[in-house]
Amino acid sequence: MEVNTSRMISLNGTNYQAWKGKMEDLLYVKEYWKPVFSTEMPEGIEEGQWKVLHRQACGFIRQWVDDNVLNHIIDETHARTLWQKLEELFARKEGTNKMFLIKQLMCLRYKEGTLIADHVNTFQGIINQLSSMGITFEDEVRALLLLGSLPDSWETFKVTVCNSAPNGVVTWNLVKTRVLNEESRKVAEASSSSHSEVLVTQSRGRSKSRGPGKGAERGRSKSKSKYADYECHHCHQKGHIKWQCDKWKKDKKKKKKQDQKQVDSDSDTEGNRVTAVEEDIMLVMHEENEGRFGSTVEERITVVSDETVNLVDGDEMIWIPDSGATIHATSRRELFTNYISGDFGVVKMGNNDRAAIIGKGDVHLETANGTRLVLKSVRHVEALRLNIISVGLLDGDDYLSSFGKGQYKLTKGNMIVARGKMVSVLYHVHAKLFSASVNALEKDDHCALWHKRLGHMSEKGMTVLVKKKLLKGVKGVHIKKCSDCLAGKQHRVAFKTLPPHKKPEKLDLIHSDVCKMSVRSLGGAKYFVTFIDDFSRKVWAFTLRTKDQVLGVFKQFQASVERETEKKIKCIRTDNGGEYIGPFDAYCKQQGIRHQFTPSKTPQLNGLAERMNRTIVERVRCLLSSAKLRKHFWGEALMTAVYLINLSPSYPLQGDVPNRVWCDKDVSYDHLKVFGCKAFVHIPQDERSKLDSKTRQCIFLGYGGDEFGYKLFDPIARKVVRSRDVVFVEDQTIEDIVKTKGQVPPQQQQDMIDSDPVPAAPAPVQVEADAEDVQDDVHGGAGEEDAPQQQQQEYDAEVDDPDQQEAPAPESPPAAPLRRSNRGRIPSSRYPSDQYVVLLSDGSEPECFADAMEDEHKKEWKKAMQEEMDSLHKNHTYELVKLPKGKKILKNKWVYRIKQEEHTSHPRYKARLVVKGFGQRKGIDYDEIFSPVVKMTSIRVILGMAASLNLEVEQMDVKTAFLHGELEEEIYMEQPEGFLVKGKEDYVCKLKKSLYGLKQAPRQWYMKFETVMGEQGYKKCSSDHCVFIQRFSGDDFIILLLYVDDILIVGKNVSRIAKLKKELSKCFAMKDLGPAKNILGMRIERDRNCNKLYLSQEKYIEKVLQKFRMENAKVVSCPLAAHFKLSRKQCPTTDEQKKEMHHVPYASAVGSLMYAMVCTRPDIAHAVSTVSRFMSNPGRPHWEAVKWILRYLRGSTNLKLCFGDGEAKLIAFSDSDMAGDVDRRKSTSGYLVTYAGGAVSWQSRLQKCVALNTTEAEFIAVTEASKELLWLKRLACELGFKQDKYVLFCDNQSAIHLSKNASFHSRSKHIEVRYHWIRDVLYSKKMQLEKVHTDDNGADMLTKVVTRKKLEVCRRLAGMAAGRQ
After folding, report:
1. What's the whole-model pTM score?
2. How far is CA 1052 from CA 542, 1032, 1234, 1282, in A?
C-alpha cells in the first residue's frame, strides 16, 4: 500500500501535538507500530528481527524531525525509548507546562478578520494537550470556554446560543457547529451582530412589495437545507429566506431609489415629521379614523421590516418605546385586562397596506425591575408584529422618558419604572403581564409583619410558604409597595437566564464568591465570603477583615459541613480573584478538591454565587433601612439575611427550603422576629436591687445560630447581649428607645403594665464607645424571681466614669444605707462575657487609591499624593521608558496615614508610594538587604547623657528617606495609580533611586547616609552603627542617632547643631522638628531647671486600652498576680475551645504590650515574657492574664522613665528565679541597667537550660547581665564617657563565688562552658561583681511576681516616676 507523505509535517518543537497524531497514523500504515507501542516482544519474532524493526522505526521517525530536535534522539536505537523521550521533551506533564497551557487557554481570544475555523482548531489543540497531561474539562465547561474566547462583537450570538440550548445545557458539539456556521453567515453578510434563529418566528400578512429592512440581518445564518420549509417573501420559492435570495439581491439596487422616492412622497403628502427614513431600517404606518367632527385623525407608530418579529421568552415580552407613535398597540389579545371589541379604524403601513384595529383596552405590565406599568387604550392590531408604547401618551400621564447612549429609562417622580436597551436601531423594554393575587386577605398587617420578619422576602416566596400553611394568620399574600424593598432591591433589567439545574448530592459542588462592602462593620470587617451548596442551595456567610482570610474561613467551613454530612467536598467553583489562587488552590489540590476557575470577564459562569451575593446585599439594605440602623451594622444584618434565605423557598428546589433539604427536617418559623425591632431583656436578680427595673431596652440583631438565645444590642450601654428571656415590640425600632434611663414615655407607661420604676440615679453612659462589648445572658425561666439562674459576667469588673465621679452629688435627705449582699458574684462557666472582644478600625485611613477617592477627605489625600509625586520628580527617582523584553515589572500601591502635628490641632495627611517588593527575585533584583537601626538602649543612654549634662536634643525627619538611595540593579515599576502620563499609558517607570517597599531600599538609604556623615567628619560607633559622633574639644561634641528616617542630634553647641542641620538639608529633603518631643512613639519631656528628662508612652498605652476596650476596666496594683499559674495544660485542646479562642485578639494584645515594655515599661517585662510563651495556642486563663496586665497599665499610664536624678554611671542588677516555668521547669533570668538614674536596658527571658539549683540559675543570669553591661561600657567609651568601675550587683553570694573561682567543680561541671566566660571578665577587671541585698535588687521584678511594696522599690531603682503633673 503506497502512502502519500506529502502532507506530513516535520517536528520542530512547537507542533508536537499535530505531528504526534500524524506520525501515529503513518507508523500504523507502515507497520512500524509494534516496536513503538508494544511493551514486550511479540511471539513468533526472533530477537534479531525485533532489533531490526526497532532500528527501522527509529529511522522512519527521525526522517520527520528537524535538526534541532534530531540532536536529542540521534543515538537512540530503541523505538519505544525514542518515542518516550520525545514525549518527555515536548509534552512533559509538569506543573509549569500545565500552567502555561491553562494560561494560554484562558488568554486565547478570537481575532476579528481571521478564520474562525483556525481559532477553533487552536482551541481544540490546547484542550487536547491538557487532556494528554491529565487535565480534562466537562463538555459544558469546554463549550462555555470557547464562547468566552469570542470578542464582544459576538455577544448577541453567545447569548442566543446559551438561551437556545436544550434544558439550558450548552454542549461542545452544539457550540462548535454554531460557531463554524456563524462564520459562513458573517462572510455572506458583512453586517452587525444578529439575533439567533431560534428566536425568529414567521410573520403574517407580509406585502410582496415591502422593501428589505435591517431586521433581516437579525436571523442567524444557516445552510439552505435548514430553510426547506420556509418560503422566500421576495420570489416566493421555498428552500431559502429573503436575504439569501439571489433575485432579491439583484433587484435591491434598482428598487432602492424608487422606494426612497415613494417614502419621501408619502411624507410630504401626509405631513409626517420624519426627516430621514432608511429603507432597511423602518417604515411608518398610520391609524386612519373618523373623528367626532368628521375630520381624519392621523396617529403614527413605527414598525420594522420583514424579519423583525415580536420576540417572546416565556412570560416576558419586548415592547418598543416610540416617540413618533400616538397610540399604544399590540397584536396579542391575551394581554388585555379589559377589552372592547369593535371597528376602531385602520393602521396604514408605509407600503400603503392597511391593518384593521379590531379592539382596544388596558394592558397591565410588570417591568423587569418589578414595577407595575398600566397602558391605557391600547389598540389591538392583529397584523402588527411588535408591541408599541407611545412615548407621547406616557408623557401625558406624568411619565418621563429618557433616551441616550443606547439606554432608555422611564421614570415617574423619583421612581424608575422601566429601563431599556438599544438593539439594532430600536429600544427594547422587557416586561411581562402583571398578575395580581386574587386571594382575599383577612389582615393586611399580618402579611406586612411576616414580610418584615422574613427579611423582606419576595411575594412569590411568601406565597409558597402560605400554601404550605407555615405562616400563622396569613391566608393570602398581597404586599403593598415597600419603600425598604425599593431602597434595597431595585435593579437593572435582568439578563435572560438558563433553566435551573443542580447536582445530585450534597457537597458535589460548592459555589463561592467574595463581596466588598462600602464601610467596615462593627467588628472591623470589610468583606464577606459566601459558600453555597449546589444541591441544597444552603448558604454560609463569613465576614472578613481582609481577603487573605478566605482560606482560613474555607477550612473552617469544610470541617463543619464534612463532619455534619459525613461527605467530602468534591468541587468548588470560584472566580479568578487573588484570594482563590496560590495557597487556596494549593490547599484544594492537597485535599483532593477539584477547583474550577471561571474565565476572566465571564461572571455568568459563577452566576449562582454572584446572584446570591446580590440577593444578600439587597436583603441587608432592606433590613438596615427598616430597622433605621447605621451601615456599620451590616455584619449583623448579613447573618440575619443569610439565616432567613436558608428558610426561604428556592426556585431551583421547586419551592422547597434549603434548610429542609440540607437537614432533611421540617423547618419552623414561629421564632422569627422583625430585625431591628425593640425588645425588653430581663435583668437577672443578682444584677439589680429590689427597686431597679427588671428589664433593659435593646434592639434585636439576630438569632443565636450555634449559641442559645437571641442576639440583641443595648444602645445605652453599647453592648451586645444574648438572652432567651426577651419580650419583643415588633412595630418599634431604635428610634423609639428611650435614650436616657430615667425617662419613660407616657405611652410606654400605659402599654407596659408590669413595668417597674426606673432608678432615679442615672448609670454611667459610655457615649464615646465606637462599638459594643459583648455579654451573654442565659437565664432560667422568665419571671421566676427566686429560681436559680446562670449569671452573666460584665466585660471587666466595674466601669469607672471620671466625669461622674467629679460631678457633685445632688442634695437629698439622709437615708439608711442600702444593704447589699456580701456574696461574691459567680461568673458564668458556660458563657463568659469577655468571650467576644470586638476590635474596631476607625476607618479614617483609606486602604487603597479607590478608598481615598471615595473618602470624605478626598481633597486632602489628592494633595498629599501630589506632594509625594512632586518629591519623586524633584529627586529624579524614575524615568518613563518602554518595558524591555524579558524584564519583569513590579506593582505599587498608595499607603495613607494621618499624623497629628505637635503644635497644631489639624492633622497632617500623608501619602506614600510603596513598591510591592515581594515580587523581587534575589540575585536579579537585589542582593543584600540588611540595614541597621539605632538600638533603643542607645537612645536611652544618650538621652540620659543629655539630661545629666544639660545638652540640647534636636530632632529632624528625612522626607522620602528611601528615595535617596542609589540603585545598582535595573528595576522597572508600573506607573502610580491616578498619575498615568497621557500618551504614555503603556510606559513603565525605570527606577534610578530607591522607593519604599523595595527589599534593598533600607540598605541603600543607610549606605547613602553613612557616606554623607563620613564626608561631614563624623565617625560611626562600632557598638551601634547608627550612632555617629564628632568631638571638637573636651566637652564640645555632637552625637547623631538614626532610626530609618528619624534623626536625633545631641550636643552642647547650638551653632554646630544648626550647621549640621544645614549640611544635611543640602543633601536630603529634611524637616526640622526643633527640640525633640516624640521619637518612635515615646514622648520626651524636659525640666531644664532640674536637669531631668522624662520618657513616657502615656498616649500609646491609652490607645492600646481603647483598642481592647479596657479603658474603663478596674485597676489592679501589680502587672501579674500570684494566682496566675500559667502553663501549657491550660491551652485549648478541643476544636470548640480553639474556635472560641480564635476570635480573641491574643497575639495583637501581646504585641501591643511588648512594644510598651521594650520602650519605657520595664515593670511589665516579666508579665509580658510570661504571656508571650503561649502565643501559638493561648487559652482562656492566658487571656485573663493579658487583661490583668492591661488593667495594671490603666492605673499606671502616667509612669515615666526619669533621667538626671542620679549619677551619670552605668549600674547593673541581676536576678533569677528558680524553675518558674511550670511546664519545663526552666528558670527566668533578668537584668536591669541604669544610667543617670533611669533604666536604659532590661531583660526578662527564660533560660535555655534547666538549672539544678538556685546558684546555677543566678550564675547564668549574672553571665547574661555581664554581656549587656560590657556592651554598654564599650558604647559609653566610644562616646567619650568613662567611669572608675563598672559594677554588677547580684543578691546570691554562692553565684558570686562561683563566678570568681572554679573551686566548685563537682557541682558546676555540668554548666555549659559559655557561662564560665564571666570568670575571665572578672579576672581581667573589666567589671566587678558585688553583693546586694534582695530588698535593694531592682531586677527582682523582672523574674517573679513581687508584692506591691517591692514593686514600688524596683520601679524607684529603675527611675520610674509619675513625672511632672
Report:
1. 0.43
2. 60, 11, 23, 19
pLDDT of the residue at 1322: 83
The pLDDT tens digits of the residues spanning 1048-1075 come to: 999 988 899 999 999 888 888 888 888 9
Cβ–Cβ under 8 Å, residues 567 and 547: no
C-alpha cell at 1297: 563565688
Q: Taking every pair of C-alpha atoms in the chain, what is the biggest distance, in angstroms? A: 137
Which three-class secondary structure string do you get for 146-181?
HHHCCCHHHHHHHHHHHHHCHHHCCCHHHHHHHHHH
Q: What 8-state DSSP symbol labels residue 509?
A: -
Residue 1044, CB-side half-sphere exposure with 13 Å CA sphere: 9
Q: For residue 857, what is its C-alpha cell?
A: 477627605
What are the CA-CA distances from residue 389 to residues 303, 309, 325, 382 (Å)? 11, 16, 8, 16
User: What percent of the chain is predicted at pLDDT more than 90?
Assistant: 18
Q: Is 1334 exposed, middle or buried (0-12, 13-18, 19+ CB in 10 A)?
A: exposed
Q: Which of 259, 266, 322, 796 is catalytic?
A: 322
- Is residue 85 within 8 A of residue 58, CB to CB? The reply is no
Closest to 675 (Cα-Cα) out of 697, 694, 703: 703
Phi and psi based region of residue 995 (left: phi greater than 0; alpha: psi -120 to 50; beta: remaining): beta
The number of residues making up the chain comes to 1365
| H or E stretch covering 315 | none
The H or E element containing residue 854 is helix 849-854
- Helical H runs in 916-1048? 936-949, 1001-1015
Query: In the Cβ-directed half-sphere of 1092, how many Cα atoms lie within 13 Å?
Result: 18
Tens of pLDDT, residues 541-564: 999 988 889 999 999 999 989 988
User: Residue 454 and residue 670: Cα distance in Å, rounded?
Assistant: 11
The Cβ-side half-sphere exposure at 392, using a 13 Å CA radius, reads 9
Closest CA to 337 of 377, 391, 287, 395: 377
The answer to whether residue 322 is catalytic is yes
The runs of H, that is alpha helices, within 646-720 are 658-663
List b or e across 914-939, with b for residues whose CB sees 16 or more CB atoms inside 10 angstroms.
ebebeebeeeebbeeeebbbbbbbbb
Helix crossing, 1254-1278 with 1293-1300: angle to 10°? 60
C-alpha angle 457-461-463 in degrees, rounded to nearest 5 = 115
What count of other Cβ atoms lies within 10 Å of the Cβ of residue 721?
26
Residue 402, judged by CB atoms within 10 A of its CB (0-12, 13-18, 19+), counts as exposed
Q: 793 to each of 523, 724, 776, 1160, how far by Cα in Å?
A: 21, 16, 8, 34
Per-residue pLDDT, averaged over 852-863, amounts to 87
Cα 35 from chain centroid (whole Å): 58
The answer to whether 613 touches 515, Cβ cutoff 8 Å, is: yes
Cα(114)–Cα(346) distance, rounded to whole angstroms? 50
Question: How far apart (Å, rounded) are the C-alpha atoms in residues 696 and 674?
Answer: 18
What's CA 1064's distance to the chain center, in Å? 43
For every residue of 763-823, DSSP letters joined together read: PP---S--S-EEEE---SSTT-SSS-------SSS----HHHHHSPPPP----PPPP---P
User: Is the separation of the CB atoms in 570 and 508 below 8 Å?
Assistant: yes
Inter-residue contact 285 to 383 (CB < 8 Å): no
Three-state DSSP class for residue 201: coil
Decide which of 431 and 237 is more confident: 431
Q: How far apart are the first and last CA of the chain?
A: 109
| Cell 521608558 sits on residue | 881
